[in-house]
Write a structure and sequence with these properties.
12 helices; alpha/beta; two-stranded antiparallel sheet; 36% helix; elongated; single chain
Length: 287
């Protein structure tokens, strides 16, 4: 039976007492920075639009600071936690609930299709470790396990790269890679003072809503799309005529002919092209 209770772990004093009483020390190498602001926790849950029928995948729950807000709202929460020392505390801090499944594993090595084989429209919610944010996001986006959306706390710089527009300094491979799979929006800004221990940088919460699988390219063309954007940004300060030379064996005349077909000025840089223009060029390469 689920209880509709609030989390006292969002209070710094209570969190410290909980950690100290369990002789738990946060691990910097695992990016353990726990949220200690109830209003932000609620913004995350509201931003993720968690409802009573939803199945939630939480990555890195730690001792349950955010988990305790998810459990009263969701049908079930599957929490994947790498730190085995955190799990007994997580269990104790969520013992009022019967809708939590804990998986002690590295999220990058988990068979998500097996875990969610009977579930669809999974909503991912997480306070992601800064050191491994991009690999986790791409792992989730590239795996089709019935996911509907991702609502995550990330380092502000990374969030700005994901949300960037063409022609800006932050716009790059990560922007395009994420945009290929999902539409990104900002949920809220989060100052570093809202965590324990306090990290060195501020954060943002972003939401990614998954695109239709067939929105852009067939599966066999995805590889060419990612090769194209990687080549374009390999020499960010160069124009497209030079950046794409590597995929045409250094033949700049071939590059110019290719870009002309796509109505792309070879003097433009990679960061000025929209995802639609990269998609168009990918299709031209397959002709």
């Amino acid at each position: 039976m689920k209880n509709n209770i609030e989390s006292n772990l969002s209070d710094l004093k209570n969190l410290k007492a909980n950690l100290g009483g369990n002789k738990f020390h946060t691990k910097k190498n695992l990016g353990q920075n726990f949220l200690v602001n109830e209003s932000i926790a609620l913004e995350i849950i509201d931003g993720a639009c968690i409802g009573e029928n939803d199945i939630v995948l939480e990555i890195g729950p730690g001792v349950g600071s955010l988990t305790r807000y998810l459990l009263p709202r969701a049908n079930k929460v599957v929490a994947v936690e790498l730190d085995k020392n955190a799990i007994p505390i997580l269990r104790e801090n969520t013992k009022e609930f019967d809708n939590l499944e804990i998986v002690n594993a590295d999220i990058l090595k988990v068979d998500l299709n097996e875990i969610f084989k009977e579930d669809k429209k999974i909503k991912v919610v997480a306070n992601l470790p800064y050191y491994i944010t991009s690999p986790i996001l791409m792992y989730l986006l590239e795996n089709d396990f019935g996911m509907e959306s991702i609502t995550v706390m990330v380092q502000k710089e990374v969030g700005m790269r994901i949300l960037a527009s063409p022609g800006t300094k932050s716009y790059g491979i990560l922007t395009l890679a994420v945009k290929y799979f999902a539409e990104a929006s900002l949920v809220t800004n989060v100052g570093k003072e809202n965590f324990f221990p306090i990290p060195k940088v501020d954060s943002v919460v972003i939401k990614l809503f998954l695109n239709d699988k067939n929105k852009f390219l067939d599966k066999d063309l995805e590889i060419k799309f990612f090769q194209l954007i990687k080549s374009g940004f390999a020499m960010r300060r160069k124009n497209m005529l030079n950046s794409f030379a590597s995929i045409f064996d250094g033949d700049k005349n071939a590059v110019k002919e290719f870009l002309d077909k796509g109505n792309i000025d070879g003097k433009r840089r990679a960061e000025t092209l929209s995802i639609e223009e990269y998609i168009k060029l990918t299709k031209l390469r397959s002709e």
